[in-house]
Amino acid sequence: MRSLIKFGAPVLAAALVLTGCGTKGGSSTASGGGTACDLKIGFFGALTGDAANLGINIKNGADLAVKQYNEKHANCKVTLTTFDSQGDPAQAPALAQKAVSDKKVIGIVGPAFSGESKAADPIFDKAGLTTITPSATNPKLSQNGWKTFFRMLGNDATQGPAAAKYIKDTLGAKKVFVADDSSEYGKGLADIVKGDLGSMVVGTDEVQQKQTDFSATVTKVAASNADALFYGGYYAEAAILAKQLRQQGWKGTIVVGDGVKDDGYIKAAGAAAEGTVMTCPCLPPEKAPEFQSAFKAAYGSDPATYSAEGYDAANVFLAAIAAGKTSLADVNSFVHNYDAKGVTKQIKFDAQGEPSDKTVWAYKVTGGKIVPDQEIK
Fold first, then answer.
1. How far is Cα 340 from Cα 96, in angstroms, rounded to an integer?
2. DSSP run (H or E) holding 240
3. How far is CA 2 from each of CA 39, 110, 295, rounded to the nearest angstrom?
4. What is the DSSP track for 92-140?
5. What residues in the chain have per-residue pLDDT under 70?
6. Of 6, 124, 171, 333, most Cβ neighbours within 10 A?
């Protein structure tokens, strides 16, 4: 496993002393009144569609960072602008082109998912527009030579082995079935888990996003006599699969990746969700109580998957603005050299844009809620 961070009392990035505020000329009215800097931070990800909850979590985290920044910089406010991809890689290129065409956008929080990142990031890189994804975990994304790509959390080369380790050591499983949704993210993560489990894997299958009938997969799982299933994909399909597995009487443990870690899974799967294990390279909210409290005050609910990572990503861009770094080249250089404490970790990136600090947690559905189980070390 990679080096793991130890979380002390978190220091909100928005509470840092930030001075100065660059402009690109012109002015507009920012949300909440006051003068705007005529600068924007973009959010790129699903706000509608089957996986919208994960995107909304990130957007709200970024939105909170912008609100806190604007409260401290009333004479020079920044706007958060959104690009709703619906999580669809086919829509990503045109949407990325729209983002780079807006010369007021100095950075992108996102793209949220690996498939849309693969499609959109070449456009961002060509334009020089820096992106910090809080959630896209396919390892290959940082291997394309993109100078504008940064990732706020560990990738699936960290999460996959951690999931396999949990299945082996904590669950004590002997036979594991591995399935995925054929997406850039889901298949990539499942392949890593499968490789780490080796001979423990007694069967595999691929399904499709938006699929609703998983009877063929359920039959294969039951016939394999697996005592655990690992599923790589998103929560919409995972919930249906879980229900159909339980309806057919399969008693094994369901283990899923971070794309399923959402209350939407529990709502759709109902009782079938109980006991599901979820791995995620993301921070439990209670590890950042000040952020958790501020988020709940703003949105009436606790932060969910990737909210804190979205908050940290936005604050990196806001720190650049506060330092007067507002050209695309200056923002990119600022992010490359960034080294400061966020709510999730000490934020620092390596030459490929990967975070220096990584951690993976296991969560479990208990009593109809997603609760932290343990850090996987």
1. 28
2. helix 235-247
3. 37, 23, 29
4. HHHHHHHHHH-TTEEEEE---SHHHHHHHHHHHHHHT--EEESS---GG
5. 1-36
6. 124
